[in-house]
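Sorry to interrupt, but I need a hand with the structure work. Please put the record directly below this note.
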Amino acid sequence: MAGAATSLHWHGDTASRYESRSATREAPWVKGLILGLSLSFFAVFLLLPLFAVFVEALRKGLETYWAALVEPDALAAIRLTLITAAIALPLNLVFGVAAAWAIAKFEFRGKELLTTLIDLPFSVSPVIAGLIYVLIFGAQGWFGPWLAGHDIQIVFAVPGIVLATVFVTFPFVARELIPLMQAQGREEEEAAVVLGANGWQTFWYVTLPNIKWGLLYGVILCNARAMGEFGAVSVVSGHIRGQTNTMPLHVEILYNEYNFAAAFAVASVLALLALVTLVIKSWVEWKAGQAQAATEA
């Protein structure tokens, strides 16, 4: 009986392993078809447009390309884009870390509401977000008369562009950190507090080292969105050349004026920034994988 039971058990394990392998194995032509479709989609919808941007940007030669980039309005657009990202990024960094720490480490009334509000920019169109700021801070908005009386301009100026950019980008850092910090739990922070560490010491020496790669990943995504945002910024900017046009808005204006060489030249700068972001993102993922492997070892 024992031998029969062992035999049945062995055959059952063999059958289950065979079913598991056969369930995950596909014919070579199926694998080739799936891989071919994936690579074709990647080439047509990602690589080809990126290649076309650089081809069109350099079609009339390097001299025309460089002249389009050093043109005063183009330089102003590049400068404003970098300034906006430089302001929005630290604000989102502070908010994202604070929100993630509160949600992952504490229990409080309104926690679910805060989690839902963090996702609000993902569900609201950027154009609607821009219109909201016009409604609040515009000349005919809720605070418009008071702002005009104190000679403060938010809409159709740099502050409005920064506010719109912060709105559409603030979920990225928090959303990267919340699941990471929830998975790590609170044991290490509680142990640090028991050993006499204050709140800042606990964050700096315990929490931050554990979330540094996820934090950097969220910062990269936030920065990429901040530099490429179009909808919300378009509504609040006023499209004032040399003053309130970011790079995406400047590209649109040049394209509408049939100045294709200049439009693609500025677009190529955005594409280069995107490629740099992609390289940094891949490096962060590689480093995070190494750190995870070292932890598990």
Summary: The radius of gyration is 26 Å. Confidence is low (pLDDT under 50) at residues 1-12, 14-23.
